[in-house]
Amino acid sequence: MARIYLSPPHPSGREIEFVEDAISSNWLAPLGPHVDAFEQEFIDTVGVPNALALSSGTAALHLSLVVLGIGVGDEVICSSLTFAASANAIRYTGAATVFVDCDTASWTMNPGLLDEALTDRRRHGGRVRAVLAVDLYGQCCDYDALRAVCDRHEVLLLQDAAESLGATYGGQQSGGQGLLAAFSFNGNKIITTSGGGMLVSADREMIEHARKLSMQARDAAPHYEHSELGFNYRLSNVLAALGRAQLLALPDRVAARRAVNVRYREHLGDEPGITFMPEAPYGTSNHWLTCILVEPNVFGTDREAIRLALEELDIEARPVWKPMHLQPFFAGDPSYGGNVSARLFEQGLCLPSGSALSVDDQARVVAGLRGTARRAR
Fold this sequence. Notes:
Elements: H1 15-24, H2 33-46, E1 50-54, H3 57-66, E2 75-79, H4 84-92, E3 96-100, H5 111-123, E4 128-134, H6 143-153, E5 156-160, E6 168-169, E7 172-173, E8 181-184, E9 197-201, H7 204-214, H8 237-247, H9 250-268, E10 274-276, E11 283-284, E12 290-294, H10 296-299, H11 303-312, E13 318-319, E14 335-336, H12 339-347, E15 348-351, H13 359-376
Parallel strand pairs: 2-3, 2-4, 3-14, 4-5, 5-8
Antiparallel strand pairs: 1-9, 6-7, 6-11, 8-9, 10-12, 12-15, 13-15
Helix pairs in contact: 1-8, 2-8, 3-4, 5-6, 9-13, 11-13
């Protein structure tokens, strides 16, 4: 039987058409008409008026901090339960990272702990300039609550939306909840450009500044003139063509992943010791990945034993993100809370969730997981 992957790319069927157009037109350079069209179509999709197509979601995160002037001597608070790129981008600027735990209701940044962290950092002479809130596994943070805390402490709120394209918050598409928001089109995301990202904002000047910086910060001159540090961060025209074809299928991809989540809940919801990542009432998740928690004393074994048993069946599963405050590189950085994300990492498992996952393949995953329980008991 073929291997079942965690979250493989899912072609829309029009990729060859769009990419052939890019190639036949000889627009093989980092810029071109497909880049412009992809940005506009993304604007229309997420409802944020300005967008910049970039080489990765990490590049988008980095530029969001750079255009705000964040650097050495500053602190940026970041969700602890996230992929390393969120924290790495902060360190690229020379700023210091401060981590805040999630809550059990959403698995995203805890607004109460954020308030505590901001109060404590000020008390100890810290200079927090911004908060980078990370949408997790397709679910948005509680942005109304986070924004109220940020406004009270006069810090900026940024959105890492790498995992939440197609999700909603308060009836609005993900991406308009922070001053700037960064998306990822990595190969495992809900849509992909092979590698790529997008930076969006309601602030046109910020996006245009980021656009300049993404092209080596070249000034307006007939020669190459540079008055600030720039980066080579633009998305190629060919990959933008791929993104346009993928974006056309976004509603279907979201619906498919939500259906995968529903089926897992139907087939595993009554399994003793298994619970699912909750869906917060303030929005809808795109269910990029379906995540479960495994209570070993009830289920009969732990999440790592399940992962290894699935691997023996040629099924890819993955632990929930290891929190940043537990990562060796960030050891010693200030951290607030931590027990919740540590428990989620210890007990959490991401199941295969691709939008092309067949009912039969999903049944293989369920059977493999249930078999692990029977053997353990």
